[in-house]
Design goal:
Blueprint lengths: L1 H29 L3 H15 L8 H6 L2 H12 L7 H23 L17 E3 L2 E3 L1 H13 L28 H13 L6 E3 L4 E5 L1 H4 L12 H5 L12 E5 L16
Parallel strand pairs: 4-5
Antiparallel strand pairs: 1-2, 3-4
Helix pairs in contact: 2-4, 2-5, 4-5, 5-6
Amino acid sequence: MNHIYNSQAVWVRAALFFVLLFGCLSVQAALPSSAQVTASTTAFLKRFVNKDGEVNYKAIQRDPKQLDALLEDIASFSMTGASQADLYAFYLNAYNVLVIGEIVSNYPLTSVREMPGFFDKKQMLVGGEKMTLDELEHNKLRKLYDDPRLHFALVCGTASCPRLSREAYMGKDLFTQLNDQTRRVLQDPAFVKVDAEGKTVMLPEIFKWYEADFGTSGKTGVAYVNQFRADKRVPTWFAMDYYAYDWRLNDQKAEDPKK
């Protein structure tokens, strides 16, 4: 009887082992890959963001399926096996999608300032880890990558933010994508405001807030800007100042299918 009982116990333990093993493998296989998150993010952005970088929050609120799926992928994303470039791209995409998600949850509104704790209090799930938008920006991006170009890729839902790209960032193309995005932003006359007649240039306040990131001190942000302006360089003798930050929402004024 003991022999039979012991044999049954062995089979039960073996069966439980394989159930747990295949269960773990099944969960692991279900986790979204970097390529999947990138493709889903691009599809979402192309559907709801126009060529001016404005977001159709109203339309997302009406049909949130893509956003909800993306937020689930961001929450459950596994860092295991991901390259540094893949992680960098993932965190950039995650930030932009999380911003949209929180705005949609509180829409309608006219400014992110209408959401207390939007940047520094609201906890969000990113790759299985809870963090605020500020923690994501400063701890997962600025501290790790020391790359000022990220300031032109992160979009916090305001009119003074850079125009939101309609294409997700991906590890293998990230260097080129960040250069292209930075070039687009710093050549945008709405972002870098040059008055040739008045011999002045107005820069956004991020150059003041993060001057250490740009390797500048005082009003010398033009040196960084000129690296990405080619033949449209701003003369260094122009008087420079910062224009006031516009906290209005980067919302589409009307649904325009041509944009």
